[in-house]
Amino acid sequence: MQLKSFTDLSLRTLLYVGMQGENLSTIGEIADFFHISKEHLRKVVHRLSSLGYLHTTRGIYGGMQLAMAADQIRLGKVVALMEEDMSIIDCEGRQCTLTGRCKLKGVLMQAQQAFLQVLDQYTLADVLSDPLLQQQLRIELHAVS
């Protein structure tokens, strides 16, 4: 299963903002850091904010920070909310001679649920606590600033 780029950017945005602690992060900083479009990132930030993961402040001194503690942000829930339609296979949208006699859809749905259950065992704090990630982010942040 491959995550959509929107979901990938959402997770990376949460990582970046989470590493900043109480400091505000801006869309420009994050876009520069990950070499991505500010416009695309704006949509990601808007969605994360509307779901209650980010608190945003407008204006010249504005920015964003986590709206809840990193240990309250379950990765599986974030992925499920950002992916919206996680159908692995489309049995309904086309005619298939096996419809009604095939267990493939059920098996794939079980696999998808297992995927999300594993992700839900981890929080943003778990990922942020990785010393190698912290070191890499600090090196990159220093290079960008």
TrEMBL record:
Keywords of this protein's UniProt record, alphabetized? DNA-binding
What name is this protein filed under? Rrf2 family transcriptional regulator
Gene3D superfamilies with a match to the protein in the record: Winged helix-like DNA-binding domain superfamily/Winged helix DNA-binding domain
Q: Cellular component terms, GO, for this chain's entry?
A: cytosol
GO function terms (MF aspect): DNA binding; DNA-binding transcription factor activity
InterPro entries on file: Tscrpt_reg_Rrf2 (IPR000944), WH-like_DNA-bd_sf (IPR036388), WH_DNA-bd_sf (IPR036390)
Q: Which organism is it from?
A: Proteobacteria bacterium 228
This protein's superkingdom?
Answer: Bacteria
